[in-house]
Amino acid sequence: FQDIVQEDFIDSYNNLTIATIMMLKFVTHRCSHAQFIVKTDDDIYFNVPKLYLLLTSAKFPKEHYGLAGRLIRHGRVVKNPTQKWYTPEYMFNEDYYPNYLAGCGYLMSNKVAHTLYNVSLQMPLLHHEDVFITGICARAAGITPHHLMGMTNYFADVDICNSWYIVVHRFTPEKLLRLWKPIAQNKCNVTAATNSLRLISAATSVLFSSR
């Protein structure tokens, strides 16, 4: 389908930051028409219709369009070299990360994507993609990440016809196939979708927070 964008770097876990910067590069140069960009992992449940309903809701707080997801506050820097998320002091020498969004899935406006791309080219790289892009670069750009209810960085049981979740993390391919089966078989009715819209409209006052 010619829909895979490739760049010249090794596709590894520690290079996720580079991959995300390249995503921002592509958006900046090739997707100026897009209003929003969502970055996700490949092991997540992503409810696109629910996010669309949220973004188009009349009660949606428009000032929070910029950068939103599962907000991580006062995340302590891991300084133990035996742990997965170890951060050497030469890469980041503070005790706490800036507030940032969990990398399993986050939303940003096109303008924010453009800004974060330009800022990322001027910052020393950190291999923790979510911390670097939505925390360090966002802070340098004066952009505040906001918490969006419905985006999680952990596993949760999901009823796809009635769920208020937008992003849920840690699904196997087999679980994802089973999860989407009701949609493929047209088993989700209009009532469920209408109820979901009502839930979103009623909850928009608490959906977003910079805490």
Would you write up a description of this structure?
It contains six helices and seven strands; from the N terminus they run αββαββααββααβ. With 211 residues, the chain is of the alpha+beta class. It has one domain: Spore Coat Polysaccharide Biosynthesis Protein SpsA, Chain A (Alpha-Beta Complex), CATH 3.90.550. The strands form two sheets. The protein has a five-stranded mixed beta sheet. A two-stranded antiparallel sheet has the order 2-6. The longest helix is centred in the last third of the chain and has 18 residues, at 190-207. The relative contact order is 0.19.
Question: Could you give a quick summary of the protein structure above?
Answer:
Belongs to the glycosyltransferase 31 family. InterPro entries: Glyco_trans_31 (IPR002659). The protein is α+β, with helices and mostly antiparallel strands.
